[in-house]
Design goal:
alpha/beta; Nucleotidyltransferase, domain 5; six-stranded mixed beta sheet; 10 helices; globular; binds 5'-O-[(R)-(carboxyoxy)(hydroxy)phosphoryl]adenosine; binds zinc ion
């Protein structure tokens, strides 16, 4: 089917989000976040997230249909994040999506949240879809991927062996006394600091494409203990530089060794301003075409699920069955499942 009208639902963590696309064209992207309800706990509380999804689901769907100026009966297929994520949160989304698909008698696609982060690139219709090296950096995952066809064929080249990049940002923010989620807070504070002030370790710099941020986390904690009066902004900037440096070195090494000259950066940490700035410089120097989604589409949203589903429908991928299983962990090599 060309240019299908797709409604996509995302509830893997603390955002209840619905996106609507026609083909690769974005028509609506509505998000209701429960992040403020979790802030005082310093992390997402699954039970609170699930309840917030239940309350927000219907109004968010109604708002998305209104923004897109389409009727529910015009939708060709329903897409939903079926994993990875918090299981109770995922179940709210998959139940809502199954109900809609059943009621409308339309196909249901349970899609991979991680693949959807990468698929967001397709929302820029000027982009030719083709092979790319993907750097996927979110709260729960950091991977380098060879993307041949996002809906059907991706190959993971390397991944975090301990903390994900976003998790490292969140933990260091906590050490620095910053609010949750920590990524945007560190990004902001780092702007007032010197990224060369402290030479923090670059983990696993001599292996291929795996990441490790736990040594860096320990180094920052030790530095804070030994130097309690150190300028917080310098620590934030130097920590951020260590993360970003490793992410880009490995991604560009993957481009060089595979001969793929496009780098696609996606996931919540792709919103980081220093990562985006350094990526522009280093990709230009390496002759690599850089693709980064607009910052608002880097963190979790419904548009990414809708466009991922649209790519799957257009590629003729088989639909999922009603009542498909929500999975808390799923490999990136499984973009859609039955
Ligand atoms: O993709 P995402 O919204 O949710 C997951 O799938 O995990 O990513 C959330 C992560 C959080 O760890 C958050 O701190 C991080 O992305 N993040 C950032 C920035 N904005 C969000 N990290 C660094 N700099 C940012 N500007
Ligand atoms: Zn995400």
């Amino acid at each position: 089917m060309s240019s299908p009208l797709i409604l996509g639902i995302e509830t893997s963590c603390d955002e209840t989000a619905v996106g609507i696309v026609r083909g690769r064209k974005l028509l609506a992207n509505v998000i209701s976040s429960s992040v403020e309800e979790h802030a005082r706990f310093g992390g997402v509380v699954p039970e609170i997230a699930s309840r917030a999804h239940l309350e927000a689901m219907q109004p968010v769907i109604v708002q998305a249909l209104s923004d897109a100026q389409v009727k529910l009966e015009d939708i060709d297929a329903i897409g939903v994040t079926a994993g990875p994520g918090l299981i109770g949160a995922l179940l709210v989304g998959t139940s809502a999506a199954s109900g809609l698909a059943l009621g409308l008698d339309k196909p249901l696609y349970g899609v991979n949240h991680l693949s959807s982060h990468l698929a967001v690139d397709a929302l820029d219709e000027s982009h030719k879809l083709g092979p790319a090296i993907g750097l996927l950096v979110s709260g729960g995952h950091s991977s380098i991927i060879q993307v041949n066809d996002i809906a059907q064929s991706v190959q993971v080249l390397g991944a975090a062996i301990d903390d994900a990049a976003g998790e490292a940002f969140d933990k260091i923010a906590r050490l620095l006394g910053l609010d949750f989620p920590g990524g945007p807070e560190i990004d902001k504070l780092a702007k007032e600091g010197n990224e060369s002030a402290i030479d923090f370790p670059r983990g696993l710099s001599d292996t291929d494409y795996d990441f490790s941020f736990s040594g860096l986390k320990t180094a920052v904690a030790r530095y804070l203990q030994k130097t309690p009066n150190a300028k917080r902004a310098d620590i934030a900037a130097s920590f951020q530089e260590a993360v970003v440096d490793v992410l880009l070195n490995k991604s560009l090494a993957a481009c060089a060794s595979t001969g793929i000259d496009t780098l696609l950066i996606a996931g919540g940490v792709a919103a980081n301003s220093r990562l985006r700035q350094l990526a522009v410089q280093r990709c230009a120097a390496a002759g690599v075409l850089l693709r980064t989604p607009p910052t608002a589409l880097c963190t979790d949203n419904g548009a990414m699920v809708a466009v991922m589903t649209s790519l799957a429908v257009s590629a003729g991928v088989k639909a999922s069955h009603i009542g498909l299983e929500a999975l808390s962990t799923v490999p990136l090599s499984q973009p859609v499942w039955a």
